[in-house]
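Chain A, query sequence.
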Amino acid sequence: MAGMNNPGEDKAWEILATMGPQEVCRAAAVSYDALSESYGIKSFGMDFSASMREKAITSASAGSEVLLQKLGYFFRLSVLWYLVSAKDIACTGRLVKLQNIRGGDIFTKGSHVLPLEPLARKYGKNREGFIKKGKILGGEMESFGDAALRLFPLPRIPVILSLWLEDEEFPARADLLFDSTCGLQIPTDIIWSVAMMSALVML
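Chain A, predicted structure.
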């Protein structure tokens, strides 16, 4: 909920209140219910509602509490800034790493490092578990590494998670990639927030 020590969320709600629902729906590929004054948005295969009246994001979907509570900070920021920033632009299919996005190199150090090592450790000997978890989150199979998933944390921002299994020579490894259009859709710090959320939701 806005107003809970997160000025980034408050600012996004403010901007969203000045925008026309038709414009937001077209740009962000979401829906709007005029009766409840709420935007409907799909994330990781689950349905969420962003209420303009309550300035709150809710869901009745099974498993949604992970995003709303455990990963709430990343989730709310990502959804709200996506709603105010998204553009009706098709994906190019060209994939990029976070550090190759303009300004993204700052997010490869210290506390900003993505939790890809824990992800690799968890699934390094469990390809089936990786795929199963991804499918629960609405993921689609991709042909990278030993296993790869295309997840949709936000409608116009697919994320590719790829896994290389542990073997006798090399430890397990995981990578996270965005479509090259991500920098046109949301600010760089929100791209990082989406990346964190996408990795953590698999753990």
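Residues 72-85 form the longest helix (14 residues). Strands lie at 31-33, 38-43, 46-51, 56-58, 95-96, 140-142, 147-154, 157-164, 173-179.
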